[in-house]
Design a protein that fits this description.
The chain has 421 residues and is of the alpha/beta class. The protein has a four-stranded mixed β-sheet with strand order 22-23-1-24, with helices on one face. The chain has a four-stranded mixed β-sheet with strand order 2-15-17-16. A four-stranded mixed β-sheet has the order 4-5-3-14, with helices on one face. β16 and β17 form a beta hairpin. α1 packs parallel to α4, α1 packs parallel to α7 and α8 runs parallel beside α12. The longest helix has 13 residues. The structure holds uridine-diphosphate-N-acetylglucosamine.
Length: 421
């Protein structure tokens, strides 16, 4: 069995280089099938979710070359419109293939997607939007059987700015005979990266980063080369690691204006934050100050993906902090593990009431999803004694080299395979 062993208590200092963004690379890889040409994607993080996406692309008929952090996809020969349940269940973002395959094949047969167990994660907004664009969808035996005779471009008003639904609409509308406008679109930086990638292929999309995205259909797309943006959630994890250990860190290779909501919370906690062109510096206070309220919300609000690590940080603050989770209803699973470490946290529905304690103690900890795994590692860094964090398959979905980066910053941390099942 593999686990991460951490002897807590070291103060972290130094520089941490940030990998490419998981949530940007996954839809961009799906988008490579639109062109039927070759796409070269740089700065792809080495993650199990990326590997699974590459497997899906191969299953669809793509030729793929992975060389370090570069992935080259030749999508000239797509041979199926089908993705089996075994592949779909492994990652939530597989639903993005729906728009991409429909655009390319005019039909698609996909099972309902899987992903982290952080909430119900329905796909009604995706399906409603695609139906409005003329897709015929039949839900049969756990599969979505879809046909697209002719895309009907038009205005689509999203009930909620869903990241995945926004991406699916962009993918299906990029090649079309008309203009599609998404109103109340998601504004996440990863949507901007998808727009930039599609436009490099020859699409005509504008407005990403605002709540109105206009997609003027084109007749075909071309070859292109693209570099994935840095991962703002991974960077927030490193900032949290420095914060909770009372240290300092420079996160390198980031886009500082992606962090407004996160650094504002760290500043309220007493951290000193400085931003540079491609990096961010954080110096932790001697004692972490409590904050009144952190509320997760769509970008540019506080990211739900950074909520678990912030809860770890606040569990050591000098008083009571409130964190409200507004995006996913089941995202406080890590708190039961933090409580094992001595944290004083009460959950009331979507609200965590965190009464900061002087000390956390090391324990055996079990990740229940990707970001909860990161939160446990962060908490263990400051705990008194040793912790072992299990269920690394979750952490491997989103962190390329968490252990090495933290070790470089001075953590006493190791990944161990004890040989037992
Ligand atoms: C993406 C991110 C994920 C992040 C989330 C919110 C990827 C691969 N994943 O997930 O890391 O936590 O954005 O920033 O990019 N919803 C519906 N119906 C739908 C779609 C969504 O009710 O059809 C709800 C979801 O259950 C959730 C909220 O809307 O409560 C946000 O979901 P969405 O923005 O779609 O997140 P994902 O694209 O799944």
């Amino acid at each position: 069995m593999e686990y991460i062993k951490i002897n807590g208590g070291n103060t972290l200092h130094g520089n941490a280089y940030v990998q490419g963004s998981k949530n940007a690379v996954l839809p961009i890889l799906a988008a490579t099938i639109l062109s039927g040409k070759t796409s070269k994607i740089h700065n792809c993080p080495k993650l199990s979710d990326v590997k699974m996406t590459v497997e899906i692309l191969k299953f669809l008929g793509c030729d793929i070359l992975v060389s370090g952090n570069k992935i080259t996809v030749n999508s000239s020969n797509i041979t199926t419109d089908f993705i089996p349940y075994e592949m779909m269940k492994k990652l939530r973002s597989s639903i993005i293939f729906l728009g991409a395959i429909l655009s390319r094949q005019k039909s698609a047969s996909l099972s309902f997607p899987g992903g982290c167990e952080i909430g119900l994660r329905p796909i009604d907004i995706h399906l409603k939007s695609l139906k409005m664009l003329g897709v015929d969808i039949k839900e049969e035996h756990g599969y979505l059987n879809c046909r697209l005779d002719k895309l009907k471009p038009g205005k689509i008003h999203l009930d909620f700015p869903s990241v995945g639904a926004t991406e699916n609409i962009m993918l299906i509308s990029a090649i079309s005979n008309g203009t599609t406008t998404i109103i109340n679109a998601a504004k996440e930086p990863e949507i901007c990266d998808l727009q930039n990638f599609l436009n490099k292929m020859g699409a005509k999309i504008k407005g990403a980063g605002t709540s109105v995205i206009v997609i003027e259909g084109v007749s075909k797309l071309n070859e292109c080369e693209h570099t994935i943006i840095p991962d703002r959630i991974v960077a927030s994890t490193y900032l949290s690691a420095a914060m909770i250990t009372g240290g300092s860190v420079i996160v390198e290779n980031v886009i500082p204006n992606h962090f407004g909501a996160v650094t504002s919370v760290f500043e309220q906690c007493g951290a000193k934050v400085e931003t540079f062109k491609n990096s961010l510096y954080l110096k932790a206070p001697k004692k972490i100050r409590r904050v009144n309220l952190v509320r997760t919300s769509p970008y540019p609000g506080f990211p739900t993906d950074a909520q678990p690590v912030i809860v770890s940080v606040l569990s050591k603050a000098d008083g009571v902090s409130i964190v409200k989770e507004n995006i996913f209803e089941n995202r406080f699973k890590h708190t039961s593990e933090l409580i094992k470490m001595g944290a004083d946290i009460r959950i009331e529905d979507r609200i965590a009431i965190i009464n900061g304690v002087k000390e956390l103690t090391g324990a055996q900890l079990f990740a229940s999803d990707l970001r909860s795994g990161a939160a446990l590692v962060v908490a263990a860094l400051c705990a008194n004694g040793q912790s072992q964090v299990y269920n690394l398959n979750f952490i491997d979905r989103g962190y390329e080299n968490l252990v090495d980066v933290l070790k470089n910053l001075g953590a006493d941390i190791e990944r161990i395979n004890d040989g037992n099942e």
